[in-house]
Amino acid sequence: MTTPRKQDAWHWRLVATGMAFTLFGLGGLFLRGVVFPLQQAWPTDVSTRKRRARRTIHQSFRWFVRFMVYTGILRIEVINGERLGGPGQMIIANHPSLLDVVFLIAQLDNANCIVRHGLATNGFTRGAVHNAGYVTNDESFDMFDRAAQSLRDGETLIVFPEGTRTPPGNLPRFHRGACAIALRGARSIVPVVIHMSPRSLGKGDPWYRIPYRRMHYRIVVGDALDPAQWASRHSPPIAGRRMNDYLHHYFQQELTNEATGTRDQGIDYRNT
């Protein structure tokens, strides 16, 4: 098999990628050690402190994404981004790479998110997870209760139902836990299909294993779905299974259409 020729200033992208990971780590430490303690010192209620922390993370991620775009690490398009955000909205997305949650939070200034439990103990990310009040996925019943309650409280919740990054060459396979949470608290479900080419930053990939050409992300936001269309016709276990089957088919079809060249035209991130 022939190795693809390195393109798009490969050596510069390698340097820029190292700079980006360094920036992300130092930024996480700065937020944890300086910004969040100052925010916590300001007398206010818990809900306001969480919103303030989430807005800070949102702005930090927006700048981080712009850094990656302008240094040539990646390109990104967001299609129908205005559909994101709203009381009790659950955002369900596939998970091809490490950066998916960064892109989505960069679009939303007050979103909750179900994150991997290890991020709550990681020195670079635990400050953000704790201060923003993100739901950690420890696979307990309490996690489901906290996620559903956040939706009932009117928060926007980001969920990756795969539970881990999609293996290269595979289509996503969703666990039914996200649908169980949606049936218990969501007012609407918005599917977000993340297309990525070439694939990189998968599970276990080191940061320096960059692809032969610049990464291109297309984030396509679908129409909102009403959980009642399943909940009103079926018992909770069956409703969850039917909803999961629908979403699984939807994502597989959208990702297959992308692979065959049948897709919508998007807007470049620089102009959004």
UniProtKB/TrEMBL annotation:
<keyword id="KW-0812">Transmembrane</keyword>
<comment type="pathway">
    <text>Lipid metabolism.</text>
</comment>
<dbReference type="GO" id="GO:0006654">
    <property type="term" value="P:phosphatidic acid biosynthetic process"/>
</dbReference>
<keyword id="KW-0808">Transferase</keyword>
<dbReference type="Pfam" id="PF01553">
    <property type="entry name" value="Acyltransferase"/>
</dbReference>
<keyword id="KW-0472">Membrane</keyword>
<keyword id="KW-1133">Transmembrane helix</keyword>
<protein>
    <submittedName>
        <fullName>1-acyl-sn-glycerol-3-phosphate acyltransferase</fullName>
    </submittedName>
</protein>
<dbReference type="InterPro" id="IPR002123">
    <property type="entry name" value="Plipid/glycerol_acylTrfase"/>
</dbReference>
<keyword id="KW-0012">Acyltransferase</keyword>
<feature type="domain" description="Phospholipid/glycerol acyltransferase">
    <location>
        <begin position="89"/>
        <end position="197"/>
    </location>
</feature>
<dbReference type="GO" id="GO:0003841">
    <property type="term" value="F:1-acylglycerol-3-phosphate O-acyltransferase activity"/>
</dbReference>
<feature type="transmembrane region" description="Helical">
    <location>
        <begin position="12"/>
        <end position="31"/>
    </location>
</feature>
